[in-house]
Amino acid sequence: MNSPDSAAFPGSPAPSDAAPVCSAKGCRAAAVWVLAWNNPKLHTPERRKTWLACDEHREHLSSFLDVRGFLKDVVTLAEWESRPPSA
User: Fold this and answer.
1) In what order do the strands lie in the sheet with 49-53?
2) What angle do CA 63, 78, 73 make, to 5 degrees?
3) How many domains does the chain have?
4) CA 47 to CA 32: how far, in whole Å?
5) pLDDT over threshold 80, residue 5
6) 61 lies in a domain?
7) Cα dihedral sign for 48, 54, 57, 58?
8) Could you count the other beta carbons within 10 Å of the beta carbon of residue 23?
9) How many C-beta neighbours within 10 Å does residue 48 have?
10) pLDDT for 63-72, tens place per residue?
11) Segment 8-54, tens digit of pLDDT
12) DSSP letters spanning 37-56
């Protein structure tokens, strides 16, 4: 059975098959950057949530997180994917 997303756009890949895209609202550009963050009021210090960013939106998304004290790291998607999984 197709997922609701793939059913909405016949012929489109399932979300798990799709290339990573930028997290900026309305942007469908390929992700190049990973912005690792956490909200210290909600998450333990070692927990990392991620947003993906294209080159155009990296600075804007980084600033949004940094102003709130959430931004922990910005690395390329390739570097992030090559890291060993955390235990």
Assistant:
1) 49-53, 33-37, 71-76
2) 30
3) 1
4) 22
5) no
6) yes
7) positive
8) 17
9) 15
10) 999 999 999 9
11) 444 444 455 689 999 999 999 999 999 999 999 998 989 999 999 99
12) E--TTTS-TT--EEEEE-TT
Do residues 41 and 47 make contact, with C-beta atoms less than 8 angstroms apart?
no
In a domain, 8, yes or no: no
49 pairs with which residues across the strands?
A: 37
pTM for the model stands at 0.75
User: Looking at the domain assignment, is residue 46 inside a domain?
Assistant: yes
Q: Checking phi first, is residue 26 left (phi over 0); if not, alpha (psi -120 to 50) or beta?
A: left
From first CA to last CA, the distance across the chain in angstroms is 33
Token digits of residue 42: 């909600």
Q: Which domain holds residue 23?
A: 19-82
The amino acid at residue 80 is W
Is-contact 66 51, C-beta < 8 A?
no
CA-CA-CA-CA torsion sign (34, 35, 38, 44): positive
Asked if residue 12 is part of any domain, the answer here is no
